[in-house]
Amino acid sequence: MRRISVNYLLLTLGVLLNFSSANASTIVPLQEDVSFTSSEANEFVTSGDLLTLHAVNAAGISYNEFSTFSVSGPTLKLINIPTFDSDSNRVEAPNLIVIKADNISLNGKIELAGAPADIRQLQGDSAPHISL
After folding, report:
1. Which helix (H) or strand (E) holds 15?
2. How confident is the model at residue 126, as a pLDDT?
3. pLDDT: which is higher, 20 or 120
4. What residues are paired with 91 via a beta bridge?
5. Domain 21-123: which topology?
6. Mean per-residue pLDDT for 101-114?
7. Three-state SS at 81
8. Quick count: other Cβ atoms within 10 Å of Cβ 10?
9. By the 8 A CB rule, do 68 and 34 touch?
10. DSSP 32-77
């Protein structure tokens, strides 16, 4: 009978299950109410990475600023659902999602979860700043 070392088994399992941080998205929000949950960092998130968007304004726009917006690996799901304001009034989901970052890299899939919306990307220092 052939003996297999424990290190060999762990290495093989790592390759088969794709334990690699090289395929992870890197998303760094600049706004406090925007949150990113990586499926690699959270055992309860198994269907891809999740991005909760900035609150919608009166014009139906969610303006989101990032220092880095790099998508790779698992599908990034943008959560676009109605929310509630501080007075518990329902606020509809945005119909336009703006993503502004110094660097944008899309080497993976992005999926919109929830209400339909247009997505616009603004990249670099020359991208206009939008006052909302």
Report:
1. helix 6-16
2. 63
3. 120
4. 83
5. Pectate Lyase C-like (2.160.20)
6. 90
7. coil
8. 11
9. no
10. TT-EEE-TTT-TT--SSEEEEPPPP-TTSEEEEEEEEEEE-SSPEE
H or E segment and range at residue 112: strand 110-114
Q: Which residues pair with 83 in a beta bridge?
A: 91
Non-local CB neighbours of 19 within 8 Å, separated by 6+ positions: 13
**3-class DSSP state of 97:** strand
Nearest to 117 by CA among 76, 73, 36, 56: 56
Delimit the domains of the chain by residue range.
21-123
Residues belonging to the chain: 132
Q: How far apart are CA 76 and CA 91, in angstroms?
A: 23
Residues facing 27 on adjacent strands: 69
